[in-house]
Amino acid sequence: MVRMNPDDRREAIIAATLAVMQRQGIAATTVRDVATELGASSGLIHHYMTSMDELIAAAFERSAGADLLTTSNLVEQGQDPLEQLRFFFDSYTRSDGDSGMQLWLDAWAEAARRPELRQISQRLNKAWQQLICSIIEGGVRAGLMTCLDPVAAAWRILSLLDGLHLQEVAHSDSVTGAQVTKWSRRGAEIELGLPLGTLTEREPS
Amino acid sequence: MVRMNPDDRREAIIAATLAVMQRQGIAATTVRDVATELGASSGLIHHYMTSMDELIAAAFERSAGADLLTTSNLVEQGQDPLEQLRFFFDSYTRSDGDSGMQLWLDAWAEAARRPELRQISQRLNKAWQQLICSIIEGGVRAGLMTCLDPVAAAWRILSLLDGLHLQEVAHSDSVTGAQVTKWSRRGAEIELGLPLGTLTEREPS
DNA sequence: GGGATTATTGGACATTTGCGCAATAGCGTC
DNA sequence: GACGCTATTGCGCAAATGTCCAATAATCCC
Q: Contact, A129 vs A155, CB < 8 A?
C-alpha cells in the first residue's frame, strides 16, 4: 500500500467505509471488509480509528452531512419561501435514490447501541428540522403560508418524509418512490395551507 | 427442563425470544440468550426453529401482530369515525411505551437482510394503513372528515406517526412522547379538515 | 413393566468478529 | 547515504455466533 499523508489516509478510510456501508448496511460492515475495499490491511484501520463505533459514525456523518449541505445550499438559492420549499423537496427526494435512506434506517436502529452514531444522527436530524422550520417561518412572514406552530409543522414534514421513505426502502412494493414524492408534497401543502398543486405542478420554463 | 407439549414449547420459545428482543434489540438477539431466558439449552431452540431468521420473524410477528389486534379491536368499539380515530391514537401512542417501537426500527432496518422478517413487517404495515384508511372512508361518508384521497392520507398519518416515534426512540431528547402524541394528532386534524382540538381535547365524562 | 418415541441436553465445530502488537518498509532530514 | 520517524503489515488472540449431532431422559402405549 502506498504510504499516505495521515489526513488523506483518514479520508480514504472513511470513503472506503462508506462504500461498504452502502453496499452491505451498517450492521454488516466489518473492519476486514473495509480493509479489502481499501486494498489495505485491517491493522491500518485501527491505526486511525480507535473503535468500530467511531469508524461507522465518521463515515455516516460524511455521507449524511454532505446530503444535508447539498440540500441546504440548494434551498438558499430559492428566491422566495415557496421556491425554497420546492427545492427542498426536489433535493430530499432525489438524494434518496442512491440508497442513502437505508443508511438512515440502519443509523436510527443502531443508535440504541452505538453512542457516537446516535449523537450524529440526532444532530443531523435536528439540522434538517431547522432547515424546514426556517423556510416555514419565512413563508409565514411573507404571507405565503399558514402555520400556527412552525416547529411542530417542521417536525411533521420531516417525519412524514422519513416515514414514507422508510416504507419505500423497507418494503419497496408497498409504497413507490413516485408515491413518496407525490404524497409528501401533498402533505406539506395541506400542512401549510397551500393551494393544491403548489408544490407538485412544474411552472412553465 | 420440564418436558413440554410441542405447541406449548414453541410458544414458550417465542415468548422468551420476544423478551430478549425487547431487552436487547433484534440485531443483538442470540440463540444462547434466548436459551438462557427460557432456562433451557440452546439445542432446544433449533429443534423447533430451523434458523435464527425464522425465530426472529416469529417473535416479531407475535408482538407486532398482537399490538395491531389490540388497536383494531379498540377501534371497532368506537361509535363513530371520530371516536374511532381518537381510540386509534390512544392505542397507538400507548403501545409505544413498552419499547415496541425499537422493535419496529430494528425490523425495518433488518428487512433488507432478513426476507422472512421483511415479509411480516410489510404485511403488518399494510394492515395498519388499511385500518386508518377504513376509518377515514367512514368519516368522509358520514360527512365528518374532508379527504380527497383516503389511501394517501392513511399512509401519511401512519408515516407521520412512525416518523415521529422514530425520533422519540432513536433520539429521546429531540422529540418527547408528549410531543409525539400532540403533534401527530394535530397533523391528523389538519390532514382531515377537522377543527383544532377534535382529537386532542378530552370531552367531559 | 418394557419398549418405542421424542423432547431435551450440552458440547463440538467452523466461522466471524474487534482489537492488539511486533515486525516491516517507505519517507523526510541531516 | 545513514538514520529516525511512522505508516503499514499481517498474523494472533479471545470472544461470540449459528448450526449440528450423538447421548440422555421423560412420556406414552401396549
A: yes
The answer to whether A170 contacts B126, with C-beta atoms less than 8 Å apart, is no
Note the pLDDT tens digit of each residue in B26-59. Answer: 999 999 999 999 999 999 999 999 999 999 999 9
> Which tens digit of pLDDT belongs to each residue from A34-43?
999 999 999 9
CB B127 within 8 Å of CB B158: no
Give which of B201, B202, B178, B198 is closest to B188, Cα–Cα: B198
Query: In the predicted model, is pLDDT for residue A103 greater than 90?
Result: yes
Pinpoint the residues of chain A covered by CATH 1.10.10.60: 1-49
For residue A95, is pLDDT > 60? Answer: no
Cα dihedral: B61, B94, B34, A26 (round 10): 80
Count other Cβ atoms within 10 Å, centred on residue B204. 4
- Among residues A76, A136, A124, A116, the alpha carbon closest in space to that of A100 is found at A124
Distance B11 CA to D19 C1' (A): 22
**In a 10 Å sphere around its CB, with 0-12 CB exposed, 13-18 middle and 19+ buried, how is residue A74 labelled?**
middle
For the domain B63-191, what is the CATH superfamily, name and number?
Tetracycline Repressor, domain 2 (1.10.357.10)
Give the residue on B whose Cα is nearest the Cα of A28: B113
Of B110, B160, B171, nearest to A111 by CB-CB distance is: B171
